[in-house]
Every structure is written in C-alpha cells, then in structure tokens.
Amino acid sequence: MSFVKKTALVYCENQFGLMDGKTAAGLVRHSETYEIVGVIDSSLAGKDAGEELDSKKNYIPIFANLTEALGHLPKVPNCYIYGKAPLEACISIEERLLILEAMQKGMDIINGLHEFFSEDREFIQMAQECGIQIQDIRKPPNLKDLHVFTGEISKVNVPVIAMLGTDCACGKMTTAVELNKALNNLGIKSIMVATGQTSLMQGSRYGVAIDALVSQFVIGEIENAVLQAFEQEKPDIILVEGQSAVSHPAFMGSLAILKGSMPDGVILQHPPARQFRCDFPLLKMPAIESEIQLIEAISQSKIIAIALSHENLTNKQVETTIEDYEQRLRLPTTDVLSYGCEKLVQTLCDRFPKLNQIIKRKHSETVPILAMG
How far is CA 170 from CA 122, 125, 235, 277, 314, in A? Predict the structure, then answer.
C-alpha cells in the first residue's frame, strides 16, 4: 500500500528565503511527508517558491495571506505548517489568529516551535471543536522513553558521517538531504538521522529535535537514533544532520552530535560571504580553518569535504572559492545546489571502498547481457 502525502500550506510571513525561513525552505525543496501546495509570505506574493529559493520554478505559489491561498487552491489543504524558525519562541497575536482560522477551515496544525500549541488552552479547545489535530514536532519524548549514552555506538560498523557547519542556517540539512538522495539513487542504502524539527517534518524516520531535550539526554538520544537506524535498516551508510557550529557560543548541538554519533568523517558546511553569525550581529563568523582545527582537536573525526552555501555569492565567486579551498585546504569542495553531490559521493567512495563496490555491483546488475552469436 503506497503512502499518500498530506497536502500542506506553509506559513512563512516576511521570512521565506531568509535565515529564519529555513523550515519553509526545507519543506519546499524536499518532503516525504507533505505535498506543499503553497507558501504564505505577503512580501513575495504572486511569485514561485522554487524561483525565489533556487532560481528554478517548482510551481509552488506564494500567497499574500490565508484567505488568498484558500481562494486560489482547488481545495483546503490537509495541514497548516508554521514554517518559520525564529530565535524567539513565541508567536505573535496576528499569527495566533491565523492558526485559529486555519483550524476553523479544517486544517491540522504542524508546529516546529518550542512553544507547544498542543498545551495552549485556546488552541486545544478550538482543535476539539473543529475536529483537527495539533502536532508539536519539537515536543520531546516522555522522560521514561529518553536515553542516556551507553557506548553501544561502537557496534555500528558502517560509515557514520556528520554534516556539521560553521553557523546556524547555512545549509547543513540541505546538503544532508541531497547527499542522502544521491547515495540512494546510486544503489547505496543511506539513512539520514534527523536532529532538528525541519528534517523531522520532511519525513526522517530516525532522530529527535535535540534542542528541545534536557541536556543530560541529548548525547544519548543521538546515539540511540543512530543505533536504531543501523539495527532496523541495515544501511550501507548513515548521515547525521548537523546543528549550529562547534564554535558557536550560544548552542551546544554540534558537540553532542560529535559525541553521540562518533562519526567516521565530517562534511563541513560553510557560507563564505556571511560576515556575522545568524541572529547574532555582534558575533563575527569564524574562519573555516579555525572550525576545522576545533572539530579535529576535540574529536577523533576528520573533515573529509567542504560544502558551500552560495548565499550572497555570484556563480563566479562560488567557482573561485571552490578552487581556493581545494588548493589551500586540500579538501574536496562543492556547492550541492549548484553542482550536485558528485564530489561528495566520490570522496565517500574513496574513503570507504565498500561503497564503491556497491555502486559497481548495482551497475553490473542493470547492464543487460547480450547473447553471443
């Protein structure tokens, strides 16, 4: 029985294509759970979401408001997704009214904030009256279901690759998703472990939003997610989504990922044109060299490749940066949205020859054998 995606409208007022709109952007680019039928952002109304993100039309319209969206769509979507990821946790009065209106229209509410809608009295009452569901993606498991670190991660005998970065909202998840798809398309069974709300919305079967957990359990939950993916899926490789940056003073997610997944390699995501850290205009971005040194100093993992975010860069500047990093850092470098994942796949195959053997075997199985006359 095939899985039918739910249709969804994504709210991202004044943030689509910007840093705090990363949840909406991730869902527009990829979702195994939802069919995104529209985005709400009055500042970009009338435009195509794909063109705004990647200069490629994907026929997902951007609407000015909920009323306009429902007036143009052939039917009311199944879900209303809050698609912003601001540093502050609470929604505005205007956003609250829109959520209540979406409920009244019969739409389930999908929420990725730390503010749990399923614990809000007004939302609970309206959901009951309208017969709809509220799903808080960041809501952590019950205490009895949480895990502490055990060391059983040592049982994992396939490559585990962590997708870390030099800042928040710089493309770590996007690179992980694209690489995961590329590997699976080549016949390599790759499983992605989620560590944030957006990738969980996209359909990752393993993982948890680690920034919503009590700190004692973060490392253990990451270890457990990797173990579950390994034991249940029997994959050829596991990719672990990164969060923030090891050097970032405000967040600890990358440290927990290094400890909990004990990766066999790290792909480092970096936005070369970014001057200051996302949401922290007083904090300058670190040099990529310092992030590499820090990661390799505090863990046994090595950086095996660089993935770029091309924000505020021309195509020529991306090309020049790739050439510079490969010459100076001696690391394969690419921008997966512009050039695909070929370099990253080749790097993995060079370091883990079994992956290359899988590709060759799959290729030989698909080549027809010609009868000899």
Answer: 35, 38, 27, 10, 17
Q: What does the domain layout of the chain look like in residue ranges? A: 6-136, 145-360
Cα angle value 63/66/69 (rounded, 5°): 50
Q: Do domains 6-136 and 145-360 have the same CATH topology?
A: yes
Pairing of the two strands 160-165 and 79-82: unpaired
Read off the pLDDT of residues 204-239 as tens digits, 9 standing for 90 and up: 999 999 999 999 999 999 999 999 999 999 999 999
What does CATH list as the number for 145-360?
3.40.50.300
Q: Give the containing element (helix H, strand E) for 333.
A: strand 333-334
Cα angle: 48, vertex 336, 195; to 5 degrees = 90
Q: Which CATH architecture has domain 6-136?
A: 3-Layer(aba) Sandwich (3.40)
Which carries the bigger pLDDT value, residue 238 or residue 371? 238
pLDDT at position 83 is 96
The pTM is what? Answer: 0.92
